[in-house]
Task: inverse folding
């Protein structure tokens, strides 16, 4: 086998014409950071719309529900803004190590935000179901009732699906980026 | 930057650097589909970032950083297409033909197969070394110290030689 360096130099550096570049660009991008950014922005707009709608119809909605929605919208907005700020710091023109560290921070923030949002929305839905229930039982009694148990089971099932989604698409990738960064500092 | 000027600048840039982009992307692709995805993603990101390039660093260094960042970030990632640059017209023509980098019988393919057995960061370092980048440039691109790069290059070269000798 030829010397490695010689072989590398033999690889043709093919140039492309305008059509070929256009053809390559015409395929859709799979940029994950862009899709996360877009998703967070859409969520933010949705939160603001919910906030405005609730603000105008608060007279006809139960007070507790209004507060619950405000708190949920505030917490979710905060989480999204934190992640979007981290995404802004992610520059593809940074050196590889800085880029991977920032990418890891973005993914960590996104997953943390995602998991907290599930809990916040879950607690909101459970509380809303309880508040809207005309029986107005005490909380402990309601949790043990058929409606309470079925609401919680439904929430847990949805949560398992969402956790699996987060694990499959993001948590695994966090581990993979961490591994690359560990290997970077490893001299042995 | 006016669109026409941006396009011009982009095509010149790609023409100048498409060779190295393809060489680096091949080091992180096991299939032609992966390869095309990586090259396309690099072009897409270049298109988006070209306004930010103000010549502060050498354009080559800029392209190496962007290409390696895209390839490393997308390692083992499920690829879901989400967008394309709106300003670029859709061209139904067949995309670039990467066959020369995937020809099963070619020694180049053998070399890439050996490189692929290294860990992702070592792959980046050895490909930059084979591109005749000096230790300072590699350190700047990868973000490690020059001394660290020196040690790593010595070890990776030895490892790569062993892989090539053993397998082929």
Result:
């Amino acid at each position: 086998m030829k010397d490695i360096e010689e072989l590398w130099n033999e690889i043709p550096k093919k140039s492309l014409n305008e059509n070929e570049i256009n053809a390559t660009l015409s395929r859709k991008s799979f940029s994950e950071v862009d899709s996360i950014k877009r998703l967070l922005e859409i969520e933010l707009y949705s939160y603001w719309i919910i906030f405005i709608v609730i603000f105008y119809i608060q007279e006809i909605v139960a007070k507790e529900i209004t507060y619950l929605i405000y708190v949920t919208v505030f917490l979710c907005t905060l989480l999204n803004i934190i992640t979007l700020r981290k995404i802004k710091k992610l520059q593809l023109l940074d050196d590889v190590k800085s880029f991977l560290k920032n990418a890891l921070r973005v993914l960590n923030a996104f997953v943390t935000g995602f998991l907290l949002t599930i809990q916040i929305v879950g607690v909101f839905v459970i509380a809303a179901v309880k508040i809207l229930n005309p029986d107005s039982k005490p909380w402990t009694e309601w949790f043990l009732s058929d409606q309470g148990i079925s609401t919680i089971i439904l929430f847990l099932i949805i949560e398992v699906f969402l956790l699996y989604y987060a694990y499959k698409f993001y948590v695994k990738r966090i581990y993979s980026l961490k591994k690359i960064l560990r290997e970077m500092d490893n001299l042995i | 930057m006016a669109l026409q000027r941006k396009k011009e600048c982009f095509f010149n840039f790609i023409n100048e650097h498409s060779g190295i982009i393809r060489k680096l992307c091949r080091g992180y692709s096991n299939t032609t589909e992966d390869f095309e995805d990586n090259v396309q993603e690099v072009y897409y990101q270049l298109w988006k970032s070209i306004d930010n390039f103000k010549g502060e660093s050498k354009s080559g260094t800029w392209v190496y950083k962007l290409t390696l960042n895209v390839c490393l970030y997308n390692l083992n990632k499920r690829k879901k297409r989400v967008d394309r640059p709106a300003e670029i017209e859709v061209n139904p023509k067949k995309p670039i033909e990467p066959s020369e980098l995937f020809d099963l019988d070619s020694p180049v393919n053998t070399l890439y197969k050996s490189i692929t057995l290294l860990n992702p960061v070592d792959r980046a370092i050895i490909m930059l070394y084979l591109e005749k980048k000096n230790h300072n440039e590699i350190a700047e691109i990868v973000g490690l110290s020059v001394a660290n790069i020196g040690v790593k290059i010595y070890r990776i070269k030895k490892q790569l030689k062993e892989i090539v000798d053993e397998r082929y």
User: Anything to note?
Assistant: Chain A touches chain B through 52 residues (CB under 8 Å).
